[in-house]
Amino acid sequence: MSDWVYVRDIAASEGQVVTVKGWLYNRTDKGKLQFLLVRDGSGLIQAVVSEKDIGPEIFAEVQRLTQESAVEVTGIVHADRRAPGGFELQVQDVHVVQFVQDYPITPKEHGVEFLMARRHLWIRSSRQHAILRIRAEITRAVRAWLDGHGFLNMDTPILTPSSCEDSTTLFQTDYFGEPAYLTQSGQLYNEATIGAFGRVYCFGPTFRAEKSKTRRHLTEFWMVEPEMAYVDLDGCMEVEEQFVSYIVQSVLANRADDLKVLERDTSRLEKVVPPFPRISYDDAVKLLNDKGLDFKWGDDFGAPHETVIGESFDRPVFVHHYPTAIKAFYMEEDPQRPEVCLSVDLLASEGYGEIIGGGQRTASYELLEQRIKHHHLTREAYEWYLDLRRYGSVPHSGFGLGIERTVAWLCQIQHIRETIPFPRMLERIYP
RNA sequence: UCCUCGGUAGCUCAAUCGGCAGAGCAGCCGGCUGUUAACCGGCGGGUUGUAGGUUCGAGUCCUGCCCGAGGAGCCA
After folding, report:
1. Where are the domains positioned within chain A?
2. SS3 of chain A: helix, strand, coil, percent, to 5
């Protein structure tokens, strides 16, 4: 019995007889010679089957093998320039674990509707495989950087009694006869945990019940939200640029093969190092007007505006000091200019738009109380949040990074639906 | 929610002015010792999303409905 090895480790077994356990990705039949492309989750390897090596009986069985049949392939590992990946197996034995009939996804072209309905199988395809491996690297890097920089992971609730912000629509559920909502942000809770721990982050799913039907929106998406006590707007931007740069450089260093599968131009990503350019909302408006776009001060940027601003720089760009009126109720005002607030968004390059929203939070009890009233929020529901301004209120900042948008940017893919194993979108909750 | 486009074989698509519904791939049969979405030959494969309407005749024109895609708004 030969050793079971994963394809990713195959180079270490050159010249040895090993067994690969996986699924048939594709097969080419040349008569007395067949090429099996076997994937095992860790990689893809070509297995060369010759009739004279394994005899007519097994050879004929292999000839009947169909796409995605489960197989255990035993053979000698050879380096060969002609093989994808540089190594191949000269097959000595094939054990068929399951013959598969009529696997629906062929190596040919398919439409989005067809593939999305078969998402549970589509994730086996090489492009999807590469994207989801990069996603895993991004989430690994997120935790590694935060854990290494004094942030404590605080898991915030998914079931919440009310809205965190007043702007978006929430999914309502029944909580023992009372209405409850799926969280749209852990931020408010993290403003409490920083009072206990100083620097924290939450990382989990977030839900928005808006009927958004665009390439940048999911109804369920993942967001990491760091929050920091005694950190102002400038300090927040410094953390963001260090954090994002680390994530990008980790993907470049650890997922080069997957970026190649996606044919990602990595030269743009190599430039993603601190410092990032910083422009005020005022200057962003000027920039848009100078480029001939019709945009007036006080409006929020739409997708085309974000694209133009993002494309004006060679790395992600901070836009800060948005009008107070278009931002959430908890944003701190600029003391010199109350009509703008200490908020900052990070717009990704290459037209991928906003990947981070954040800024400095209101520290003043009086201002927050006034904002809650002004935004028609229920005072009672925010009493605990007001408590945080009663007992040791300090300047503090935080931000939320959208994982799927980051994956789409780094993978250079057109639609966010491919950045999560099972996307939840308007009109799609299957599979 | 609004705007635009689409739905034809298992998949991806074609079908001229309203006039016999067709190709590639997949499947099945045969051939081939270096294939990379292999190639060569052969075979089978259809309630044209759905309900009506116009017409001698509708995949094609008209209306409703269903489903999907792209975009807007909102946002990460």
Report:
1. 3-98, 119-419
2. 35, 30, 35
A358 touches A351 (CB < 8 A): no
Q: What pairs with residue A323 in β-bridges? A: A340
CATH number of A119-419: 3.30.930.10
Neighbouring C-alpha atoms within 13 Å toward the C-beta of A7: 22
Backbone angles phi, psi at A412, to 5 degrees: 55, 50
Q: How far is the CA of A29 from the C1' of B31 (A)?
A: 11
Does the ipTM surpass 0.90? no
Residues sharing a CB contact under 8 Å with residue A383, sequence separation 6 or more, in sequence order: none
- Side chain identity at residue A217, one-letter code: H
Strand B closer than 7 A to residue A373 Cβ: no
The pLDDT of residue A88 is 94
- Spanning CA of A104 to C1' of B9, the rounded length in angstroms is 15
Structure confidence by residue, pLDDT tens digits, A19-41:
999 999 999 988 889 999 999 99
**Protein-nucleic contacts, chain A 86-105 to strand B, CB < 7 Å:** 88, 90, 102, 104
> For the packed helices A303-311 and A281-290, what is the interaxial angle rounded to 10 degrees?
90
pLDDT tens per residue across span A404-416: 999 999 999 989 9
Task: State the CATH architecture for A3-98.
Answer: Beta Barrel (2.40)
Residues forming beta bridges with residue A344, ordered by sequence position:
A320, A358
Q: Which residue has the tokens 């050159």?
A: A14
Is the distance between the Cβ of A146 and the closest atom of strand B smaller than 7 Å? no
Strand B at less than 7 A from CB of A186 = no
Please spell the DSSP secondary structure of A291-346, one letter per residue.
TT----TTPPP-HHHHHHHHHTSSS-EEEE--BGGGS-TTBPBPSS-TTBBSEEEE
Return the half-sphere exposure (C-beta side, CA atoms, 13 A cut-off) of residue A242: 12
